[in-house]
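Input sequence (292 aa), recorded before submission:
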Amino acid sequence: MTDEFGQLTEKELAVGYWWVRHRLKIRAGLIILFIVFIVVIYLNAGWKFYNYLKNTPQHQAMLQELTISVPNYEQIKTTNAPKPLLLGDTVAVGDRNTGYDLITEVQNTNSRWWLKELEYYYIIDGQATAANITNILPSDKKYLIHFNLAKNISVSNAKLFIRRQLWERVKDRTQLDSRNNWVKPAVKADNVITNFTNTNQLNIITSFNLVNDSPYSFWDVETQIILRQGNKIVGVNALTVSDLSSGERRQIEILWPKVMNSDLSTEVKVFANSLDIKNIRLVPETTPNLIR
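Predicted structure, token format:
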């Protein structure tokens, strides 16, 4: 034993002596610390259980309120759906000798929805005409037209039928104003004049300038020309103007082949569709010549 103790340093002997004297106290302290830890855990669990029992009615009320306040997605969808088109009366333009054109004025009252595709046709005496497809821009009025019905056909009971509607919400915020309404491009008909031709007093000619003051250049711009005698529509025509550049002013002339009297007025509707990206003609950027 003496040899073994002789191999220990005084520091090691001091540590061993301290441990022998204090090990029971250390053990007792660890046991007390463990007991305190267990007590804290039980107290915390008991406090949470007490709060659960205390707040159970309130929690149940909150859960019931959440269940009741679940949003009705069908109602939301219905509320935010586009309003249906307003349909006017169908008018037959022409006579039994020359044939008829059928027109119906429709109005889209939605300021942020447009009809990307509208397929329609007419029923006359149980027979359907060929279907036509068009589009209607936000907050706009347009005539649905079916041209060149056969002669000697009765059109008094002609009725419009809409087969298909494809609505689309305006998402491009650069085309919306501060009230989130679509801003119609500044394309208009200017200087609309209808008069007899100089060479033939039996024919009528309508001329106007199609002015594009918008920043867009369009591949196609639709126009509808309505000729009235008093309040009666006596002529209808539609013309698609191609490749209309921004800032361009183009003269358009329409010759009416039918014999008409005076007291005529003309309405020109212009539809410049900036919502269809395929209808916007992009102007290629020009690279300036380098000075050498």
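Checked by second reader. The two ends are 103 Å apart (CA to CA).
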